[in-house]
Predict the structure.
Amino acid sequence: MKKTYFAILGAAAILSLATACSSKNVNEPTANESSQSASSESSSNGMDESSPMDDLKEDAKDAVLPSEGTADAKQSTLTGTISDIKDFMFTITADGTDYEFSFEQDQKPDGLSDVKDGDKVTVTYTGTVSEVDAFSGTVLSVKKAE
């Protein structure tokens, strides 16, 4: 008798835990319903009917990505010793500091194939280069320095 009582009590406990974990408040509106109600309220108030998502899409259209570049992007140069030339990056050592320049494999900078490890070169690039942060820009050319 005790075994049956404990079995029923255990089954009831497991069922109550299972239903408590999977309980869902059906009175809460979903995200889709709340955005629809918000847009209907704004239209009834005489406000603009564009949703925040439409505003984000418009902002995204106007944004310029770093990879796209701009016509007025500032060109900079760095002169140093080139090393670690790979299919997608190379390193320039200038004044004892290493700077890593990365590029797309199919878009190698002009003049990179004409230099080898240990050559003193001048790199022309747009964007920013730092010894601690990743290079964010475009390498335009690599030329041997005189």
In short: The chain has three helices and five strands.
